[in-house]
């Protein structure tokens, strides 16, 4: 018996012409907009098939579209969250972000019913603009108006975050206390209101957590009573990283963890368990923009009167531990370069257990100490001295949380999450936690040294160029002297070569004219100067290290 051909669930829209054709057709169309690297959201296909079969409505159509190939989706390119657009009559009527199956399941019948009413009863179709783009357009319009008005002295736009005092803290009467704590920490409250979320609103707001086990519990909790919503900034300090600062103050997501690791945090003091953790904070600029549009769609972010904070050029120590170095060295170095860091110092080395214990002596006595030492000494590691503006803080942001499970849950794009090694509990990258520690740690791996450099008689005509190269490489010339060696001094200088075939010729060469002697100082001076010189045989150097 011939097998019945399966009807394709989703149309594949590969170009602008196919996009326009899909939108021109009558009915309700749901389009899964995806990035090329991620592909369509297969997680909802089973549900869509079931809905299509249950409703049996020819006006309902599904499609997928890659943002990079369609001009109309230009503004959706580069956004990592799954996005579902609903079109009717060629107009956008609804948007759902995240693979939120319950919300999609509810939205489709409601939107389809509304479209039938438009087509059959002449009702007005409710057309929308994407809330995220609406907010971005408002910000762009505001900037344009200021430019046209000649407001050249206005500072940059303030950075803001959305904070929510959740129902458990509101019902317990902690709102005033928390607001006072917010003000005491130097935050400026730009807007606030008490808001009772419906279950549908709670599902939409937390749609990015739809796949979590606690999602339904979280939605029920957020709809169980009023919340107090605030928009926070840091006064006129436009450069203040208010998102990160607020998240530090509220503490870890799980209140029980917060009570142990950050007892002074707000979640430790006012939360009760993992989901009922008293407070919420935006976790990125993009999420803050989305949440601001959700709660305060007409809010205009004010400008700061202050000038941007001056950038601080810093250096910090980065360690790629042995397991990650073996498997992901090139990928990690590429990420470091993409993040704008300059690798000022670099050394691959094998630590002894005594060296590792000395470096991490402040962790001695902790449960994980032995595992940490084992991880640091199981093979060669790569030590890097990284430089850029605010290097210490920027590198730690790139690393993510110390605990690998926390990094994977709360910061999946962080380096510690991306390059975790299976069955190894210790995170695979280290970063200095302060400017002071950075300097001490850089000195540990790249101690300040002095070395002797000699420009030999045959290179005297190039000595100025050689000195310039030495300075460009970061060496400090602590002392220099030009002198002609006697035979006795030349023999003492090269005594380790005595008895070798080339020894007489070397002594003769070193006494044939004046040499320039220099004392060079810098971190790891000996090794770095030998790398700068290249192989001892000039022919080998020309072939293997032409820039030496």
TrEMBL record:
EC number(s) stated in the UniProt entry for this protein: 2.7.4.6
Region (Disordered) residue spans: 130-156
Cross-referenced SMART domains: NDK (SM00562)
Protein family membership: Belongs to the NDK family.
Pfam families registered for this protein in UniProt: NDK, Thioredoxin
SUPFAM superfamilies: Nucleoside diphosphate kinase, NDK, Thioredoxin-like
GO biological process: CTP biosynthetic process; GTP biosynthetic process; UTP biosynthetic process
GO molecular function: nucleoside diphosphate kinase activity
Listed Acidic residues bias regions: 133-154
The name this protein goes by in its record: nucleoside-diphosphate kinase
UniProt-listed CDD domains: NDPk_TX (cd04416), TRX_NDPK (cd02948)
All copies of domain Nucleoside diphosphate kinase-like, residue ranges: 158-303, 313-447, 448-548
Domain of life of the native organism: Eukaryota
Gene encoding the protein: LOC118407607
Matches recorded under InterPro entries: NDK-like_dom (IPR034907), NDK-like_dom_sf (IPR036850), Nucleoside_diP_kinase (IPR001564), Nucleoside_diP_kinase_AS (IPR023005), Thioredoxin-like_sf (IPR036249), Thioredoxin_domain (IPR013766), TXND_domain-containing (IPR051766)
Organism from which the protein derives: Branchiostoma floridae (Florida lancelet)
């Amino acid at each position: 018996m011939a097998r019945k051909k399966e009807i394709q669930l989703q149309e594949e829209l590969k170009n602008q012409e196919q996009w326009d054709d899909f939108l021109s057709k009558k009915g309700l169309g749901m389009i899964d907009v995806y990035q090329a690297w991620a592909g369509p959201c297969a997680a909802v296909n089973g549900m869509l098939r079931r809905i299509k079969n249950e409703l049996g409505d020819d006006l309902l159509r599904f499609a997928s579209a890659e943002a990079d190939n369609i001009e109309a989706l230009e503004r959706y390119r580069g956004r990592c969250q799954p996005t579902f657009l609903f079109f009717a009559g060629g107009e956008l009527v609804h948007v759902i972000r995240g693979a939120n199956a319950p919300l999609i399941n509810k939205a489709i019948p409601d939107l389809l019913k509304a479209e039938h009413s438009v087509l059959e009863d002449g009702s007005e179709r409710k057309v929308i603009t994407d809330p995220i783009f609406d907010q971005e357009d408002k910000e762009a319009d505001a900037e344009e108006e200021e430019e046209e008005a000649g407001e050249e002295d206005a500072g940059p736009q303030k950075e803001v975050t959305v904070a929510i005092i959740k129902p458990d803290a509101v019902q317990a009467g902690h709102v005033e206390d928390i607001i006072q704590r917010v003000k005491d920490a130097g935050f400026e409250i730009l807007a606030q209101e008490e808001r009772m979320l419906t279950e549908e609103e709670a599902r939409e707001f937390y749609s990015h957590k739809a796949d979590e086990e606690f999602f339904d519990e979280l939605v029920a909790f957020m709809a169980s009573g009023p919340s107090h919503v605030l928009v926070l900034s840091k006064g006129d300090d436009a450069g203040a990283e208010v998102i990160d600062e607020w998240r530090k103050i509220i503490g870890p997501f799980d209140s029980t963890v917060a009570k142990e690791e950050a007892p002074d945090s707000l979640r430790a003091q006012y939360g009760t368990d993992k989901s009922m953790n008293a407070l919420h904070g935006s976790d990125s600029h993009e999420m803050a923009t989305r949440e601001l549009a959700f709660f305060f769609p007409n809010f205009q972010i004010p400008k700061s009167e202050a000038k941007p904070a001056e950038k601080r050029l810093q250096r910090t120590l980065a360690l790629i531990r042995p397991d990650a170095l073996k498997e992901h060295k090139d990928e990690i170095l590429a990420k470091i370069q993409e993040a704008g860091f300059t690798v000022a110092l670099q050394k691959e080395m094998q630590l002894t257990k005594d060296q590792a214990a000395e470096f991490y002596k402040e962790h001695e006595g902790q449960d994980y100490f032995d595992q940490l030492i084992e991880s640091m000494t199981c093979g060669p590691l790569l030590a890097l001295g990284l430089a850029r503006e605010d290097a210490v803080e920027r590198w730690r942001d790139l690393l993510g949380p110390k605990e690998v499970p926390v990094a994977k849950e709360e910061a999946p794009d962080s380096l510690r999450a991306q390059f975790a090694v299976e069955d190894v509990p210790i995170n695979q990258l280290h970063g200095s936690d302060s400017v002071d520690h950075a300097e001490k740690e850089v000195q540990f791996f790249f101690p300040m040294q002095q070395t002797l450099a000699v420009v030999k008689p045959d290179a005297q005509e190039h000595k100025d160029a050689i000195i310039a190269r030495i300075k460009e490489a970061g060496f400090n010339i602590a002392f220099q002297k030009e002198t002609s060696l006697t035979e006795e001094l030349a023999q003492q200088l090269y005594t380790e070569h005595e008895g070798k075939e080339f020894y007489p010729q070397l002594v003769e060469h070193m006494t044939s004219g004046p040499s320039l002697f220099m004392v060079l100082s810098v971190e790891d001076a000996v090794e770095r100067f030998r790398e700068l010189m290249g192989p001892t045989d000039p022919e080998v150097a020309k072939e293997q290290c032409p820039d030496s």
